[in-house]
Fold this sequence. Notes:
- The protein has 105 residues and is an all-beta fold.
- The chain has strands spanning 9-12, 21-27, 32-35, 40-45, 56-61, 64-65, 69-73, 78-80, 82-86, 92-96.
- The chain is 0% helix and 45% strand.
Amino acid sequence: MNKIRKGDNVIVISGRDKGRKGAVLRVLDDATLLVEGVNRVKRHTKANPQQNKAGGILEKEVPMHRSKVALFNPGTQKADRIGVKSLTDGKRVRFFKSNGEMLDA
């Protein structure tokens, strides 16, 4: 079970964007994910009139490693670790390690 999923609110815990918060836009594979408004780079593109693309400097998010982010706990207003446990009905849920609050109940 993936501990970080699409739509989760995360906070960056290391790197140049340390402390920034954003929602996960896409989980690309087991190691990388795309976070909204975080790890933005500028790309200089050349115009291509055949494809109706304008040139200039584009700013976009690039993927980052999942070890650089942690889930944001709204209860404590801090980054938190995630655990997975099984309920009595067999359903597996994620929970915050600090206060035991469940994410997908």
